[in-house]
Amino acid sequence: MRWYNKPIDSHSLIDCASSTPTIFRRKMNEEEKAGELLNQFEQILESDPAIDEIGFVHPSLFVNLNEEASSSSDGISNVVCSADGSAVFWNRDHKLGISTDVLIPLYKEAKRALMAANRQYKGVCSTADITGVESSVCDSLSLGNGVESEVMKHSRAVLLVSSDFGTAWNSRKMVLLKKQELSILLDELLFSALVLSYAPKSEHAWSHRRWVIKLIAGKCSTLQEIVTKESELVEKIAERSKMNYRAWYHRCWLVTYMTTELSLHELKRSKNWAGLHVADHSCFHYRRQLMLRILEDRCCKQENESSSCSVKINQLWKEEIDWNEMLIKRYIGREALWLHRRFLSLFWIKHFLTGQTSLPGDWKHKTSMNNDFGIFVDNELHLLQSCSIIPDDSFDDYQAQATYSATYMLWLIKQIPDSGGVEFFEKLRTEHLNALLNKACPERSSTWDSIMAYVETSDHYVKES
Predict the structure, then answer these.
(1) Which of 68, 288, 347, 421 could form a disulfide with 460 if both were Cys (CB 3.0 to 4.6 A apart)?
(2) H/E stretch holding 249
(3) Of residues 415 and 77, which shows the higher confidence score?
(4) How many angstroms from the chain centroid is the CA of residue 328?
(5) Is residue 53 scored above 60 in pLDDT?
(6) Are strands 95-99 and 53-57 parallel, antiparallel or unpaired?
(7) What is the CA 185 to chain-centroid distance, rounded?
(8) In the 8-state DSSP scheme, what is residue 357?
């Protein structure tokens, strides 16, 4: 092997040696700037604890924000600049804007400070455990040294820049578990709401809220008020963040903490929102969870109250079915409405028409006696007839409406009990459905033929023949 030795220029060594302090000084300057940036950020958060919304702003927009602030009645500039004079923060009317240019250095510095505070906090607690010091002494020691406040302060800074940093959320849980004071837990809900203002689909933020509510549940006498505010928060976020399944999952989870009265109130209050968002499956899923909760609570009533309860639930379901039919006829071709109707019809058949329920016997008997199966069948057939009309110059929505209505009836065939099957099939002929499906969606004719063959071999048709 041959080695090639290249002579080293002495001037290169001198230049390298002279450039090393420059690089070191530049690195120190960057760290100092990042530290100053973090201090400015945390001071703003401390000076305005009522901040309820955070956003990231391009540097070019700070000029407009500054001009707007200068032209206001108070004439106070709300732009905070860094040491080099560039605008980095904007704070006014409890709104906070952060320059996109400083997000990365701010996140790195806040993360570094948080990890250092975490190590110090764990060290204090582990020392107390080893020496056998009581937890109350450990709490006062860590609080006196400001370690807890440092962990909470730096984790707040990190999460307001990056909501999915799980270590920061766990750090806050670690402190909250030792404190478990109601006021602190309520403040934590406000903080996570602030995170959701810029990251409405953050799984960590929603999960943290549920964790906090579980801690509050056993300590707060006004839990229903908190649950109501949580539901309002989800609705507010869902209005500006479409298809937010994490938010709606959180709202459905809240149903387990609702009383019957609150469930009824939520069902009534969410009706207007659902009527304006008929394509939102999540909203109707939430209504289904509320109705199941109400039904479950009624099932737990005493038997002597079952008769009056049955009438109320019967009326509740009837109103929901009528309202759903009105929406179907008003908003053509919305799949979410037809899926919601399947839920309503299935429970109407099982709980009110046939009495297949775990409720007391008196409830089942009176409910099944007071409901006419023929009325239900006629109403569904009339709905099918009104939705199966496809104008020649129609849009695709009418074809979708006809397809949804026909497939709904095919589904309903399998749900009808044997006692009402003969009456139902005397009024409904599957060849009409087959023709309707082939007209509305001819490219799936083979699929419709297979489904129709399956339906015609069902128990109802065998018994009828």
Answers:
(1) 421
(2) helix 245-254
(3) 415
(4) 26
(5) yes
(6) parallel
(7) 20
(8) S
Residues 6+ apart with CB under 8 A from 380: 345, 409, 412
404: nearest Cα among 344, 452, 337: 337
pLDDT in tens, 369-400: 445 677 888 888 888 888 877 776 667 788 88
Residue 196 · residue 238 · CB < 8 Å: no
97 SS3 class: strand
**Domain assignments of the chain as residue spans, ordered by start:** 24-179
**Residue type at 71 in one-letter notation:** S
- CA neighbor of 53 nearest in space, from 254, 237, 209: 237
0.90 surpassed by pTM:
no
Hey, what long-range contacts does 107-111 have (CB within 8 A, 24 or more apart)?
A: 107/158, 107/161, 107/162, 108/34, 109/31, 109/34, 109/35, 109/37, 109/38, 110/38, 110/41, 110/154, 110/157, 110/158, 110/161, 111/158, 111/165
Q: Angle formed by the axes of helices 260-276 and 281-299, to 10°? A: 160
CA-only gyration radius of the chain, Å: 32
Cα–Cα distance for residue pair 96/201, rounded to 1 Å: 19
Residues 6+ apart with CB under 8 A from 409: 380, 384, 428, 433
Mean pLDDT of 206-226: 93
Query: Cα 216 vs. chain centroid, distance in angstroms?
Result: 20
139 pLDDT higher than 60: no
Q: Tens digit of pLDDT for each residue in 297-308?
A: 877 764 445 455
